[in-house]
User: What shape does this take?
Amino acid sequence: MELNKYAVFLEVARQQSLSRAAEVLGYTQSGISHTIKRMEKDMDLALFDRNRNGAFLTSAGKALVPYISQLVQGQENLSQAVFSLHNLHRGSLTIGTYSSISRQWLPHIIHRFKQDYPSVRIDFKEGGNEEIVRWISYGEVDLGFLSSCFDDRLEWIPLKEDPLMAVLPENYPHKKNVFPLDEFNGKTFIISAPGTDVDIHQTLEEHHIEPDIRYSAKDDFTIVSMVACQLGISILPQLVLKSYEAAVRTLPLEPFSVRRLGIALPGMNTASPATRKFIDYTLEYLGMS
Assistant: This one.
């Protein structure tokens, strides 16, 4: 390629020797010499002072180094982009996620992503916090949507704060527009299964709240249905409740509490082109890019 001569120029400048540059690049010394002479002729400039001690940049050569470096780096960036696009269009992506995110966010993100990359296969596995972290760690998924990841081995990309809400039967006797956490003390409570939604368990523990836990369920809809049937009260994230608010009464907690949603993955540097691009589309959808 025409740009190869610029790579030759930079290598001679680094090595300060035609012969050493030839060894590094796998060229003959005469080939290196011919390339430099051709550049000097085309530019009508002396780029190197050559003597028996080596080849040293002239003032003109030094002035051109930043520009030639940009050309060579641009060529490398272009090659990497082409490679990435080939791999992106042929790629696949497996996502670990909460069911609430797979209902509320992922259909919109996948729709936008598929318009540009229709050949990328996308699968996702729904689970709780501990499951998703395990899937990421063992390479079963490429990335995970979950709440506050405390595994230092994984890279964390924060996305949104999702308020935690009191979930009450429609006729529950409460007149305020917020629900104090201490009112859960002693009340019949339906809790998410251990390892499913760690933020709810942590919120109760941090504020020393001790409800009367009678039921535990992994599925969000099951918890909402049980509250609607007046089997107890609960706490669920606002994103979960968007599909079910007609069946129950929901109120913000006092003090205000949230779960912090984000993306966890082994590392951006080792992520596939499809993974990195999907993260870009996620940030754009959430207005963060």
Observations:
- The radius of gyration is 30 Å.
